[in-house]
Amino acid sequence: MSTPDPVSTPGDDRNGVQVIRRAVQILNALRDERDGASLSQIAERTGLARSTVHRLVGALESERLIATASRSGRFRLGPAFSTYAQAAEFNFALDFHPVMSRLSQSLNETVDLAVLEHDHARIVHQIAATRRLYAVSLVGAVFPTYCTACGKALLAELPDEQVERVLGGRLERHTPHTVVDVDALLAELEQVRETRIAYDREEHTIGICAVGTSLTDAAGRVVAMSVPMPAQRFAENETAAAEALLAARNEVARA
What we know:
six-stranded antiparallel sheet, disordered N terminus, 45% helix, 8 helices, Arc Repressor Mutant, subunit A, Beta-Lactamase, 8 strands, 2 domains, elongated, 255 residues, alpha+beta
């Protein structure tokens, strides 16, 4: 015979929520710290007492959500997040799969789904075209944001100041068509915000062009959906691809 769980009091619930909130503050403080952060730095960024940070970091470390980054006592996000991220990413991609499938069938072109990861766009899902000549990349591949359609669509969701911080200065030229002037790129991103469509006209890879747009799901997650294709058939198909992408975007918004 099982023992019933003790009845929680409102105070217990509030304390539990507070602990969770503080733990999330600590995890957020470490999110972009590749080299880790010290307890003092975490306390400063979260506004929490160092004793509280020390206690919660220890609990999170025991669950492998935080790991020691160096012998000097710095901490970073732990390996458990990889497992959670893979599961979440799989479910995340499935949410967009139906609309991606319809888009791919209507255009008979590859459709990619990408997320912003630091200063790159990472492909998290893809439906490849069935025709003989088509553009394709590996799921998990990362691409520069400033010279790809999916990357520009993601950058356009950020204010200019954040775009400049993400790009971090000098832009590398990948092809003769790559836009490497930051001001010119910012002007292009303003157009993307107005039209909701981003273009890559052989800016990252000679022979490959693409159109892309950003989407936001019910949970507030921002992604980019793009349609890459060989440059030789892009000019006559870019308008149709852009219109189909906008229709897909509207479909996701309605859903």
